[in-house]
Amino acid sequence: MWIALVITHGLSAFLLLGAITHQVVSVWAPVRARAGNFVARFRAVGSANYVNAIIVLYIATMILGAILYTNYRITARLTLEQGRYWKSFGAFELKEHLIAIGLATLPAYWYFWQPSQDAEHARTRSMLTTLLAFVIWWGFLTGHVVNNIRGLGT
Asked: How far lies 40's CA from each of 24, 32, 33, 35, in Å?
């Protein structure tokens, strides 16, 4: 069961990572002309279309991570401590705090991405999107490294 949860959590995190990456690139490097090549098409996505998907995926991924956290505390964390993987241990502890900050940011993120907020709050949208992208990338990479040190399912 734990392996299935880890895989589901990882796939959910991967979808979230793709959505936030598309959005942050489209916010910081919007396409001004017709999208011709791959990079231009990557940047040309409708960034407002990702907001609800990002929020739902963030919450779903966080809930799956919270379920897996019990097993992590019992097995993987002990391995990190005994193996003296202090940097990985600390990075995962920081991940927990960043994920909570990201969760607290979601209502503001949703509010500033509403169509009525388009012109006047573009900078705020960019900053909130960048903050969430940092949190999500940190969480994904840290979780991947810690899982590779000692898998949760074993």
From this structure: 14, 9, 9, 5
Output the DSSP codes for 73-115.
Answer: IIIIHHHHHHTT-HHHHHHHHHHHHHHHHHHHHHHHHHHHTSG
Domain spans of the chain, in order of start: 2-149
Return the HEC string of 47-84: HHHHHHHHHHHHHHHHHHHHHHHHHHHHHHHHHHHHCC
Cβ contacts of residue 42 below 8 Å, gap of 6+? 22, 25
Read off the pLDDT of residues 29-62 as tens digits, 9 standing for 90 and up. Answer: 776 656 566 666 665 666 778 899 999 999 999 9
What are the pLDDT digits (tens) for 73-106?
A: 777 777 778 888 888 888 888 999 999 999 999 9
Locate 70 and state its tokens: 């019990």
pTM: 0.83
